[in-house]
Amino acid sequence: MPPPNTPEEGLISTTTLALRPLVQGESVSPVVDLRALEYESEIDENLICPICRLPLVSPMITNCDHVFCQKCIVQAHNLNPVCPVDRLPLKLVDETRTAPKIIHNQLDNLLVRCPNQSHGCSLIVARSLVENHVTRYCDKTLVPCPHPSCDKTVTRRDSGKGCLHYNVKCEYCEHTYEKADLEDHQDNQCTNRKKSCELCETEYVRHKQDEHVKECPEAEISCKFAPFGCTSQIKRKSLSEHARLCEYRVVGPVGEQMAELRAELKALQEKDQLKERRIKFLENKGFSVPTTNTSEGIADISLPENTAPTDPAPYESRDQYFLSLFETVEAKVERLSSALNEVEGRHSVMLFNETLPIKDQLTEIRSTLGVLGMHVRWLMNFRLQERGRVGTSTPNMSGSLVGTQDNNNDPTLSRHLSDTIREHPPRL
Amino acid sequence: MALSKRIIKETERLTSEPVPGISAVPHEDNLRYFDVEIHGPSGSPYEGGIFKLELFLTDDYPMVPPKIRFLTKIYHPNVDKLGRICLDVLKNNWSPALQIRTILLSIQALLGAPNPEDPLAADVAKSWLTDENKAIATAKEWTTKYATPAAK
Fold first, then answer.
1. Which A residues in the span 68-87 are in contact with B, Cβ-Cβ below 8 Å?
2. Structure confidence by residue, pLDDT tens digits, A307-328
3. Residue spans with biased composition (Polar residues) (chain A) (predicted)?
């Protein structure tokens, strides 16, 4: 029996799947062979395929109510077209269908071990989730080597480390292995992998020496009171005993308190410094305010220069001086900008106030203009009508008025004019 | 392969919950080959006898029936001189849903109920039909002679 779910086996199961004549309602995973899985719990007899005697995989139910794995019933049917349980004639296409959902659900909930158990994954998971685990998350799944020209596989955990398929020599047994297999070799196989500790005489795996050193009971380490002056090196196993007898144990608690106090002091000092700077800043600002009141703008700008030489003592360093200078200037700029804003606001209000009456007047003038235009048009109309009336009442007296003859000889003009007027009667 | 997983399961079950009067033990070097012993059913001419059989699971098992044969000589109308068995479930009526244990139970039942109408050993069947008492006596005799452990 090969170990479950070796890659070769996965490959075989995929090809057989592809060859099957009937493919429907698939829950068979091409990556994880559900038949090769190791089931964690006792399986109900009703969920076991009568043919392969394993928990059903993509169950099919016959018209005579017997349930089989799809793969099994297809295979059995090819040899003998009857139901394997009751031997009634069976048509595969018409008389079988996917088993009810409840059976699928029960099967999906069965707990299985990760197929990479042999590689060290100890996860137990519902059967429906095992493929997801293996294909996406399991650290022990073999994935293609990240190196493009290497066609070997490597566990997912090591896939980020680049191609590990080069030969290295095991430093303990002188045999050559691929880097990817070296750790496993040194952990489990190398004949020379164990080493007994020179101090405690227990055996440990060589390449885990660092871990052993950290816990070896015979290794000598310094006393926990070393910071307070104890210089003795004590074996780990007798450390607690030494701690009880160490001359410095009396100093221990005091030393601890001292360290605490020192830390506290440091924190307080820092706080104090912060506050001092704050005070300097405020003092400087407060000093500048009365000056602004007494002197004018130009004097105000040169103020810090005046202040600095007169009072250099409060500043501990150049940096601090410049910082406070900067802060003062900043405050001043702020003040100026706010004043500027105020002036701007005032100006705009003033402007607004003055424009408003002008606007009113403008509208008034415009309306007057409209009325005037109206009058003019009315008058024009009136005049034209009158002239027309004169023209019709004295047709023979054409020579009486010089302009009328022209008018009569050019009817388009008169019509045009009257038309224009007629066009706009509502405006009048 | 998955199907050999079925064989492993069947073997495990045969050992953990054996069928009364039947034992089947796989060979260590070939797990498809079983040494079988069937106790003659009580009330039959074979009572008290322990019959050895060999059982072989081919590569196509369970799609094809197991090959099974009596090793102990037995006077039975459905078993020939070579120990071959005439039983429908081992031939046409095989179903992949059957198992080693069910087949062995069928054979045990066949010992309890010989079927001379569908004979394999023609002479045995003939004497069974003509003189049943004599045939049963012969069967008992053979059982004592070949199938009783003390006689061996």
1. 72, 75-76, 79-80, 82, 84-85, 87
2. 444 444 556 677 888 888 899 9
3. 391-412
- Domain coordinates in residue numbering, chain A: 14-133, 142-213, 329-367
CATH number given to A14-133: 3.30.40.10
State pTM to two decimals.
Answer: 0.51
The full 3-state SS of B72-83, as one line of letters, equals: CCCCECCECCCC
State the smallest CA–CA distance between residue A52 and chain B in angstroms. 6
Annotation says B86 is catalytic: yes
CA distance A138 to chain B (A): 23
B112 burial type by CB count under 10 A (0-12 exposed, 13-18 middle, 19+ buried):
middle
Architecture of the domain whose range is B5-147: Roll (3.10)
Q: Which residue of B has its CA nearest to A9?
A: B1
Q: What is the pLDDT of residues A16-66, one digit of tens each?
A: 333 334 334 344 446 777 878 888 888 888 999 999 888 999 999 999 999
Residue of A nearest to B89 (CA): A87
Domain ranges (residues) in chain B: 5-147
Give CA A366 to chain center in angstroms. 64
Residues in A closer than 8 angstroms to B9, CB to CB, are 53-54
Name the strand (E) or helix (H) holding A131: helix A127-132
